[in-house]
What we know:
The chain is α+β, with helices and mostly antiparallel strands. It has a single domain, classed as Class II aldolase/adducin N-terminal domain (L-fuculose-1-phosphate Aldolase), CATH 3.40.225. It is about 40% helix and about 20% strand. It contains six helices and eight strands; from the N terminus they run H-E-E-E-H-E-H-E-H-E-H-E-E-H. It has helices spanning about 5-15, 70-80, 95-100, 110-115, 130-140, 160-185, and strands at about 25-30, 35-40, 50-55, 85-90, 105, 120, 145-150, 155-160. Strands 3-2-1-4-8-7-6-5 form an eight-stranded mixed beta sheet, sandwiched between helices. Strand 7 and strand 8 form a beta hairpin. The longest helix is centred in the C-terminal third of the chain and has 26 residues, at about 160-185. It is globular, with a radius of gyration of 15 Å. The termini are far apart.
Amino acid sequence: MSIEQLILAGRVLWEEGLVTSHGGNLSIRTGSHTIIITKTGTKLGFLNKEDFIEVPIPSSKKVFPEASSELVVHSQIYLENPQATAVVHAHPLATVALSFHLEEITPMDVEGKLTFKSCPVIEVKKPHASKEMAQKVATCLKEYQIVCVKGHGTFATGKNLEEALFFTSSLEFSSKLLLIQAKKALL
């Protein structure tokens, strides 16, 4: 995997509306003990080579202040999931909306059922860059391909960026369908 693939993944997330202008982050494993992660405050839709930093795992935001604020979560995911080579963190609107009402998002559409079966929604006291969130997300990703943090966003892993991006995109599509169906049921 390469910086160019990270740049493309960021662009796709932005174009699909899965992140806000400065939201979300990406990382890839570059060695058994290193990752490349987006820097803090980057715009995923407009990434360039200077928007990334290579850090060891485990690593700390205090040691690498220019790294994404979610470095602690990415680091824990890689530590606990050696098969993961990419992490996509996004803020998909429909999925986050459902996270306020569901403990698990189960798709009703065929693609969703074939892609990810279900997505657990976890709740933490501090749903941003916390050790508690890092531990819960990493643990869930041992069993699931994607997890949603209530009111915050999703974390997906994959054997490559394309796979992690696919889980993120597929979940959002399924979430939109669930919201449409819920609205129709209310009418």
